[in-house]
Amino acid sequence: MADKVLIYSRFPKAMMARFAERFELLDTAGKPAQEVFSSGALGGIRALLTAGGTPLGAGAMDLFPKLGAIVCYGTGYDGIDLKAAAARNIAVGHSPGANAASVADIAMTLMLAATRRILVADQYVRSGDWAASKPSPMMRPQAGLPSRRVGVYGMGEIGRKIAARCAAFESEVGYFSRTRHDVPYQYFSSLEALADWCSVLMIAVRAGVETHHVVNADILERLGEDGYIVNIARGSVIDEKALVAALTDKTIAGAGLDVYAKEPHAPDALTALPNLVLAPHIGGHTLESHIAMQDCVLANLTAFFAGQRLPYAVKTA
Amino acid sequence: MADKVLIYSRFPKAMMARFAERFELLDTAGKPAQEVFSSGALGGIRALLTAGGTPLGAGAMDLFPKLGAIVCYGTGYDGIDLKAAAARNIAVGHSPGANAASVADIAMTLMLAATRRILVADQYVRSGDWAASKPSPMMRPQAGLPSRRVGVYGMGEIGRKIAARCAAFESEVGYFSRTRHDVPYQYFSSLEALADWCSVLMIAVRAGVETHHVVNADILERLGEDGYIVNIARGSVIDEKALVAALTDKTIAGAGLDVYAKEPHAPDALTALPNLVLAPHIGGHTLESHIAMQDCVLANLTAFFAGQRLPYAVKTA
User: Fold this and answer.
1) Residues in chain B closer than 8 A to A280 (CB atoms)
2) Hey, what domains does chain B have and what are their CATH numbers?
C-alpha cells in the first residue's frame, strides 16, 4: 500500500502528477483539511505537502497526531511555524535553490517591463494609437539600465543571480543583507542606505517576522520619484498600503510585483494603477524549475517514509 | 545667422530641442518637403536630419540642389540610397553604437516578456481571474532561460550586448554573422543552422538588400514550436506575412517585435495575436541613449557646417 501524503495547499493537478505515481495523495484543494477528510483519515497522515507561504501553525499541526514531515514545494517556508514543528518532532523540508534562476529571471522581466513601460508600449501599438501618431505621455523616455543603480535586498541564491544579471546590463549593483558576502557588489549596511543610493530596489530577502513590512513609506520615499521597486520574495516584506500610496502620488515611478500580501488576491487599489506590472506569483513557474522542485519534494518524502533524515531540510539557526 | 537644417522625418519636438538651440530647423513633420516648403527654401538647404529607416533616394536628394550632408538620428541608415548620395558628394552620418545598450535591453525585455508571458500574467491578475482561480491555458509553464539556446543574428555592437546579457541568464548563446568574431559564443555558418539549433532567435543584423526577408517561412519552421523570434533591427529583415502565419498556426510559440515592415503601422493580423509582445520602435528610446544620439548628430552637423569631415560618417565598404 502506498504511503499517504496530504496536499495541504491548493496546487494544479499537473504539478502533483509525479507525486501521485509514488504516493496516495489526499488533496484538500486548499480547503481546511478537517472539512474535506474525516478525523479518522487525518489521524493516519504522517506527511504533508504544502506551499511555503500557506500559514501552517500549531493548531493545524495538531489535526494530524502522527504528523512527522511537512514538505514545502519551493524555496520558501515562511508560513510554517518552525518552533511548533520542532516541539512536535516534525521535520520541515523545502526545495532550496531549485527555482533560483527562474525567480531571478522573473525579477529581471518585471524590472525591464516596468522601466521600459512594455505594457503601455504593447497597448500603444495594438490600439492603433501609434499608427495615428497620438501622443502618449506614458511613453516618455526613461532612464535606461546602464544609468541605473540597482539595489538588491537579500544575497541568497536568488539575490546573487539577480545581481549577476543586472551587472550584465551595465547597471551599478549594490546590496544589503544581514551579513556581508564575498560578492563583487557594493555593500550597504542598512536598507535605508541602499534605498537612498539605488533607483531600482529588488526584494530577494527571505520572509519572516524580522522582514515583515520593512519596505515601508520611508524606504519608498528614499527610493524617490525615479525609483522602481520589484518584489519576487513575499508580499509580507512590503507594506502594501504604503506602496499603493507611493505609486498613486508618484513618490516612486513604478513597480513590478510577483507576490502580494494575501495571495491569490491583489488589492483593487493596486490593480487599478497603470505604472506597474503584475504577475500571479510565477517566479518559479518554468518547466525546469518545477522539475527541480519536484525532485526535492520526492527526495524529502521518500527519505521520510524510509525513516531517514530529509535531504533538503529547512536549516534553522 | 544660424545654419539651416531640414528635418526630413517625423520626430517629437522634445528630441529636436538641442538642435534648435544651434540651428534654424525647417521641420517637415514627416510630410513631403516640397509640400511644406517653397522650392526657394529647399534650394538653400545644405543639411538634412532624418531617421535612418525613412526612405531617402536620388529623387528626394535632387529636391535639394545644395545638399551636402544627410545626418541620421540613430544607428541605422538603411533608408538612405548611399550610392546616390556618393554620386552627389553628399556625406552621410549616423550615431554608431550610441543606442546599443538601450536597444539590447529592449531585446531582452521582449524576450523575457514573451517567454514568461508577462502580458497574459498581468491581465490574469488585473482581471481578477487569478483571485477566482480561473484556469489560464496561456499560463502553462514554459521553458526558462537556463534551458534555452539563444541565437543572435548579427554580431555588431548591439548583437554583442544582447549575447553578453543572455549569457548572464545562463542561456547557451550562439550566433551567425557574415564573418566570425572573436567572441566566446558558438559560431554558426548560416542562419539556417542557427535557427535549427536555437529556441530564441534575436535579430540584430543591419538592414539592407542582402538581409531583406531573410527570416522567412523556412527559418521560422526551423525555429520550431517552442521557438521565439525577437526583432529589434528592422522590419524588413522578416517576411511579416510568413511571421503572421507562423504565429497563427503555432509553427513557433511567440515573438517580441520592436520594428515592423511599414512603421508606424503594425498589421492588424499581427496586433490581433495573443502570443507576442509589441513595442513601437522604442529600442533606442531611453534618456541617455537620446543624449548620446543627439551628441553624434550635433557633432556631425557642426563639423559639416565648419567644412570638415563628419566625425560619425557611415562607413561604406
Assistant:
1) 121, 124-125, 130, 139
2) 4-97+287-305 (3.40.50.720), 100-278 (3.40.50.720)
